[in-house]
Amino acid sequence: MVALIYAIVTGGNKGIGFEICRQLASNGVKVILTSRNQSRGEEAIEKLNVCGLSNVVFHQLDINDPSSIACLVKFVQTQLGKLDILINNAAEIGIIIHDDKEFKDGGGFVQVLDENVHLLTNIIKEPYELGEKCLNTNYYATKTITESLIPLLQPSKSPRIVNVTSTYGDLCWFHNETLKEELQSIDSLTEERIDEIIRWFLTDFKAGKLQKNGWPLTTSAYKVSKAALNAYTRLMARKYENILVNCVHPGYAITDMTSQTGFITAEEGAKGPVMVALLPDNGPSGVYFDGTQIASFSSTRLVDKKQIAPLS
Ligand SMILES: NC(=O)c1ccc[n+]([C@@H]2O[C@H](COP(=O)([O-])OP(=O)(O)OC[C@H]3O[C@@H](n4cnc5c(N)ncnc54)[C@H](OP(=O)(O)O)[C@@H]3O)[C@@H](O)[C@H]2O)c1
Q: What pLDDT sits at residue 2?
C-alpha cells in the first residue's frame, strides 16, 4: 500500500494558495486546505470537488490566532498522525492602494520603485499599523505555525517546508550595505538578531527614518517581512537537516494581493511552490527559487528605466 502524503497550505481559499492546493491534490497529495474564514474555505473545497478532486479537506486556520493554530495541530495529531508538507503561503501586503486606476494605469507594481517614491504618494499609502501587521503575519505568524508543526513533520519520511516569499524579499531593495551583509551572512545570523532588525525597522518606520537608515522606501514592511522570512528559511534549513526547507517567489501573479495586476496567472504562480514541495529527497534545502529556478537571495538588480511606466 502506498502511504498517503499529507500537505497543509495556509491561505488556501484563493489566489496562489488555492492553486497550490489544486495542483498538489492533482498530484495525488492529500491536501488540508486552510483558510481563516470558514465559509471562504468551504467554498474553495467545493470548487475543487467540482473539478473532481476529493482528496482535499478544509480546516480553519488564522495564522495570527494561537488558539486556531492549536486546533489545527490537534487535528493533525489525532486525524493524520504526521505531516509531510507545510506550505506557508498566507500573507498580506501591508499597503493600501489609494487610487486603483492610477495604480493600474501606471503598470501596477512595476512602478513601485524607491526612485519613484515621491510620485507614488497619492497612489499607495503605507500606514505604520498596516506595516506592523504585515510583519506580524508574514514573519512572526509564519514562524509560529512552522514551529508548531515541526514535531508533526518529524515522523514524515520526506518532510518539506515551503515558504512562499517574494522577489521583494531580495536584499537588493535594501540600501544599507552593512544590514544587507548581516542578513546575507547566514553562519553568524540568529533568530534573535532578525527580531532586533525588525524592531529597528519598525522604530525607523514610525519615526520617518527609512531613507536615513537605508531601508526600502516602498512596500517597506512587506520587503522587510519577506527578507526576514528568507533568512529564517536558511536558518531552519541549517537547524533541521532532515527537512527540506526552501522559499519560492511565485512570480508577479494576478491576484487580490496585486489588485489583479501581474504578468502571470495564479495557476502559473503556483507551479514553483508545488515543484519545491515535491522535490526529491536529495533535493536542495535552504535555497531561494524564483519560480522553478534556483536564484540568489541578493541579486544585482539593474533597473531598466525604459521599462518603468511613466508617472505624471
Ligand atoms: N501575487 C503576486 O504577484 C505575488 C508575488 C510575490 C509573492 N506573492 C506571495 O504569494 C502568496 C500568496 O499571495 P496571493 O497573491 O495569492 O495573495 P491573495 O490572493 O491576497 O491571498 C492571500 C491569502 O492569505 C490569506 N491570509 C492573509 N492573512 C492570513 C492570516 N492571518 N491567516 C490565514 N490566512 C491569511 C488570505 O485570506 P483571506 O482570503 O481571508 O484574506 C488569502 O487566502 C503570499 O505569500 C504573497 O506574499 C505573491
A: 66
What is the C-alpha radius of gyration for the chain, rounded to an integer number of angstroms?
A: 19
Ligand 1 centroid distance, CA of 2 (Å): 33
Is 139 considered catalytic here? no
The residue whose CA is least distant from atom 29 of ligand 1 is 90
Distance CA 29, CA 143 (A): 24
CB of residue 38 inside a 6 A radius of ligand 1: no
Between CA 93 and CA 116 the distance in angstroms is 18
Buried-state track 223-233, b at ≥16 Cβ within 10 A, e below 16: bbbbbbbbbbb
Q: How many residues does the chain have?
A: 312
pLDDT at 300: 75
Extract the residue ranges of the chain whose pLDDT is less than 50: 302-312
| Top CATH class, 6-307 | alpha beta
Pocket test for ligand 1, best of 34, 35, 36 (most atoms within 8 A of CB): 36
The Å distance, Cα 139 to ligand 1 centre, comes to 13
pLDDT at residue number 305: 38
Minimum CA distance residue for ligand 1 atom 19: 15
Tell me the pLDDT tens digit for each residue of 269-298.
Answer: 999 999 999 999 999 999 999 999 999 999
